[in-house]
Design goal:
CATH topology of one domain: mini-chromosome maintenance (MCM) complex, domain 2
Strand content: 35-45%
Helix content: 10-25%
Order of helices and strands: HEEEEEHEE
Strand order of the largest sheet: 2-1-7-6
Largest sheet: 4 strands, antiparallel
Shape: elongated
Number of helices: 2
């Protein structure tokens, strides 16, 4: 290898290694923020598999956390768009149930956000 080949290889490794680490760790260690009528009602860790059901006068939504991802598993809304969305796990990705005014938002663990549980 020539001198410039080694320098080029070192630059590529220096740039790509941190990028690869960030991409591999994305979606891990985050939270799922569950909101109803715009208010935070529950915060779920994406590190722990769980199921949570929220019931209101508008209907019910069941949220499932599994393998670092979250989804609306069941709902009694007419169109079921929230259920059909499937799993989400990227920062600021969301599932919204408009008839129930219900929302699940993924937030990374290193991001600041307000949590108000009622």
């Amino acid at each position: 290898m020539k001198k410039y080949d080694i320098i080029l290889l070192a630059v590529i490794i220096t740039v790509l290694l941190p990028l690869a680490i960030v991409l591999l760790n994305s979606g891990k260690g985050g939270k799922a923020i569950v909101k109803s009528d715009g208010k935070v009602i529950k915060t779920l860790s994406l590190d722990k598999d769980s199921v949570y059901t929220y019931q209101s006068d508008k209907g019910f939504n069941t949220v499932e956390v599994k393998d670092g991802k979250v989804r609306v598993l069941e709902a009694d809304c007419p169109n079921k768009d929230c259920v059909n969305k499937g799993y989400i796990n990227k920062n600021n990705e969301s599932v919204i149930c408009l008839p129930h005014r219900f929302e699940v938002i993924v937030k990374s663990s290193d991001e600041d956000y307000d949590i108000i549980v009622q």
